[in-house]
Design brief:
The chain is mainly α. The protein contains nine helices and no strands.
Amino acid sequence: MAGVLQRAYLLAYNGISFAGWAWILTRTIQTLVAGVPPSGLYAVVGHDLRHVQTLAAFEIVHALLGLVKSPLFTTTTQVFSRLLIVWVTLHTYTAAAVQEHWSFTTLVFAWSITECIRYAFYGLAQIDLKPFLLVWLRYTSFYPLYPLGVFSETSLIWHSLPFLAEQAGQLWVFAMYGILATYPPGLYMLYTYMIKQRRKVLGGKPAAGVKVKKH
């Protein structure tokens, strides 16, 4: 019974998260197609992005309670790095020049596409569905999307530093320099891990042979 409830909860969590990110992606595309310049995108999706991303804090609790097999440290650092972007860099200590920077647009695309794939993948895993196209996207889309996401995050942090110094002080700036220094090794570790996982999961085997963890 506990297992059924756990799977039902994770199915609901992943479904809600997928819907949130799909909404962000849809609104972004609609906004840009309507002729709004990238500099105006934050005004449209910034509020929703902040709250959809904050929902991911539950994933730290999931890892802590053992509901998923994700490492607690890795999950915590990934979630907090994004919360830092949406709550500090883009919201609390920021300026219009940061919110309107073109890298916010690339950030939204990198995050929303990645998360739509990830949450759909893990949500369907709760009911033992593993469409090959979705599995392939999960273990292939990271090639362009992870570097794009990291580039966008670091670009926004870098451009926010002068405003951060004015509003919060140099101590915050030094802390941000330290955080920026963690991005290259962090990307390397995550990228190489996903490459290994891709070989393990895909590896030329048919879709029926794919084993999916119920995240």
